[in-house]
Amino acid sequence: MDRLLAFTALIGLVVLSLVGLGAPASAGGWAVTTFDHLPPEFVADRTYHLGYTIRQHGVTPIRVDRTEVIAVTSGGASRSFPGTPDGTIGHYVVDVALPSGSYTWRVTQQPFMAQELGPLTVGDPAVLPVPGAVAPSPAAPPVPVTPIRPLAAVLAAATVLSALVFLRLLAVPRRGRGAAGAS
After folding, report:
1. Which among 92, 114, 175, 181 is most buried, taking Cβ atoms within 10 Å?
2. Alpha-carbon 107 to chain mean position
3. Are strands 31-35 and 48-56 parallel, antiparallel or unpaired?
4. Torsion angle of the four alpha carbons 79, 85, 88, 90, in this order, in degrees rounded to the nearest 10
């Protein structure tokens, strides 16, 4: 009876694990935004016409409900620049103009999570770099974290733990059987 109960519990956990892994995929998963081209530097109060594509799961261009570029100062003040569809599915354009300063910026891609783009420094036009000077190469944008990875890890760990408990129950000899059969 103990073995049957353990086996039933293991099967139930496996089924729940499979259902749990399928739920995030049915919610649409995640998306990645890639810019067509970014200038090597941003200068204050200059308008930049930026094109970008939003791809579901990083592959398929997709039309989203709403998209915008948001720049946030270290003090928490933010500026928003709405993106507009442009031509092919998943391609958007936005005009961005910011005063000089340091920002973090992101692209919203609703219904998906926003994609953080990292730090952005907007230079003062009065203090432009010397022509011919070598500027440091910008850091690559962070890889988006998909919400399924932590869930999958927890479900996999629970499945392995249940399997170990099940195998342990199979290996433990039952008590009292030998005495009843010896009479």
Report:
1. 92
2. 13
3. antiparallel
4. 50
Main-chain phi, psi angles of 32, to 5 degrees:
-125, 135
Q: State both tokens at 176.
A: 């009292």
| DSSP code string of the chain | -HHHHHHHHHHHHHHHHHHHHHHHHHTT--EEEEES---SSEETT--EEEEEEEEETTTEE---SEEEEEEEETTS-EEEEE-EE-SSTTEEEEEE---SEEEEEEEEEETEEEEEEEEEEEE-GGGPPPTTPPPPPPPPPPPPPPTHHHHHHHHHHHHHHHHHHHHHHHHSPPSSHHHHHH-
Among residues 90, 94, 105, 95, which one has the least CA distance to residue 31? 90
Residue 104: per-residue pLDDT: 96
Name beta bridge partners: 33: 54
Per-residue pLDDT tens digits for 94-109: 999 999 999 999 999 9
Low-confidence residues of the chain: pLDDT under 50: 22-27, 133, 145, 183
Q: How far apart are CA 3 and CA 136, in angstroms?
A: 64
Residue type, 173: P
